Amino acid sequence: MIIISAFSSLGEYLTFLEKRNELKRIRVEVDKYLEITEIADRFVKVGGPALYFDNVKNSNFPLVINVFGTWDRVVRAIGNPDDIAKKIDELIKLPTKKIGFWDTVKSLPNIVGLMNIKPKIVNKAPCQEVILRGDEVNLNDLPVLHCWPLDGGPFITLPLVMTQDPESKERNLGMYRMQVFDRNTTGMHWHHHKDGARHFSKLKPGERMPVAVAIGADPATIYSATAPLPPNVDEFVFAGFIRGSGVEMVKALNSDILVPAQAEFVLEGYVVKGELRREGPFGDHTGFYSLEDDFPVFHVDCVTHRKNPVYVATIVGRPPMEDAYLGKATERIFLPMLKMTLPEIVDLNLPIEGVFHNLAIVSIKKQYPGHARKVMHALWGLGQMSFTKFIIVVDEDVNVHDMSYVRWKALNNVDPERDIEIVKGPVDVLDHASPYPRFGSKMGIDATKKMKEEGLIREFPPDIVMSEDIRNMVSKRWQEYGF
After folding, report:
1. Mean pLDDT, residues 406-413
2. Separation between Cα atoms, residue 91 and residue 93, nearest integer Å
3. Which of 93, 226, 319, 369 places its Cα 20 to 30 Å from the Cα of 301?
């Protein structure tokens, strides 16, 4: 049986961390302007605990940060990503030719709680214990961090942004940073390829679209907001899949949007098509500032929260940061889906220094000439993988997570003229090196063993490997040698 995430709220998770001495309380007054960032950055860089600030200057609420700041903490928060991947792999391999998908699922008792993963609608929720409207709304009361010296202002960095398609009413949960402009407006920094932006694009000029933003949900729901799911996959259902139980949700007070019932805060409001405001700069997850640009304005007309809420935040900057470990979880969780499209793939590594979109190392079961190039172009055609700036393809015997081994293979197996492929296409909006916004060049490196049909006119040498019988003999005699 695979046990996944067991936390139904942020509070449950924080209590769990504190019992394990993985949450450090800071009781002296600290400043949300730069000071908390410097403290948190020092802790995340050394794999330190989550930090709970009881006394944030000029704020009415405590703040917690670094809750996903190590790989072990991500595993405890959402479950082991490899176990989640196995669960996905089981579903992918289900026979669904003549019977319905859900009927097939019912026949597999080892798929824990799968019929119970849809959101559960409730009428009363902790997130609406306190209701603030009109002049009572003041975002400056929240301990929103001004993270880095050149930031354009304070930013909400871990928001769960909920929108609905104006036509189909299909909902989306995304995570888009929000610069606080004043007591009741923020920026809404959704990139062009994000579903929130897609919903917004369907509005007519001057038309309003309701938006709700939760701060501080259960760990699985927070993670699901970051997951690169297809547009037709509900993030809340995915969160239920990770948790093994449906997420409790309640109707927002001012719209039909359903929000996480166990959230710490919920901001309700709207955006207007045609209303933009200059946002940024912002110290981003690339380790560089993303520059100023115009984005929609989020008007907040209602704030609800628990009676004793805690504000959860993260900081991004030069890796490793919290988002690096969440990105690694995504790498492992979505590998089975990648293999479903490209079954020749053995493993994938997105190094933390590549900040998710700059480098992918892929091992494949090579079967024919040009196979590595086929994989490169296929990856460049898949969702957010299309933004990958460098792809290195290696043979199946290469451990893609052993960077020393990968470098050895690539540096020795590659002839630059023959094995490097340069193409043009979309790149991540945060890629500051590309000559144009969202468009630039990408490189594929074929580091696999070459075939004659690929232009190798001489014999490709074998790796130097000791014979297995000698290895076993030496291992058996190791203590005998006096080591």
Report:
1. 92
2. 5
3. 226
pLDDT tens by residue, 149-159 = 999 999 999 99
CB 329 within 8 A of CB 218: no
Q: Measure the CA–CA gap between 84 and 112, rounded to whole angstroms.
A: 11
For residues 53 and 63, the answer to whether their CB atoms sit within 8 Å is: yes
Helices (H), 178-299: 195-201, 219-226, 235-243
> Which pLDDT score is estimated for 94?
62
Q: Could you tell me how many residues make up the chain? A: 483
Report CA-CA distances (Å) from 460 to 392, 451, 454.
19, 8, 12
CA nearest neighbour of 248 among 125, 416, 414, 330: 125
Residue 419 host element (H or E): helix 416-419
Distances (CA, A) of 364 to 331, 347, 422: 16, 7, 20
Tokens 């492992």 found at: 332
- Which three-class secondary structure string do you get for 112-174? CCHHHCCCEECCCCHHHCEEEEHHHCCHHHCCCEECCCCCCCCEECCEEEEEECCCCCCEEEE
Kind and range of the H or E run holding 269: strand 265-272
Angstrom distance (rounded) from CA 260 to CA 126: 9
Residue with tokens 């690339």: 286
pLDDT mean over 208-236: 93
Among the listed residues 407, 128, 102, the one whose alpha carbon sits nearest the alpha carbon of residue 252? 128
What domains, with CATH codes, occur in the chain? 10-313 (2.30.110.10), 342-454 (3.40.1670.10)
Q: What is the arrangement of strands in the sheet containing 345-349, beginning at the earlier edge strand?
A: 345-349, 359-364, 390-395, 439-446, 420-426
Question: pLDDT over 70 for what percent of the chain?
Answer: 94
**Does residue 98 have a pLDDT over 90?**
no
- 3-state secondary structure at position 321: coil
- CB of 36 within 8 A of CB of 53? yes
The question of whether 284 is a catalytic residue gets the answer: yes
Q: Which residue out of 151, 218, 284, 419 is catalytically annotated?
A: 284
Across 76-85, 95-104, 177-186, the highest mean pLDDT is recorded for: 177-186
pTM score of the predicted model: 0.89
Report the SS3 class of residue 105. helix
How far is C-alpha 335 from the geometric centre of its chain's CA atoms? 14
Sign for the CA dihedral angle at 410, 411, 413, 417 comes to positive
Which residue, among 167, 122, 115, 116, has the nearest Cα to 258 in the 3D structure?
122
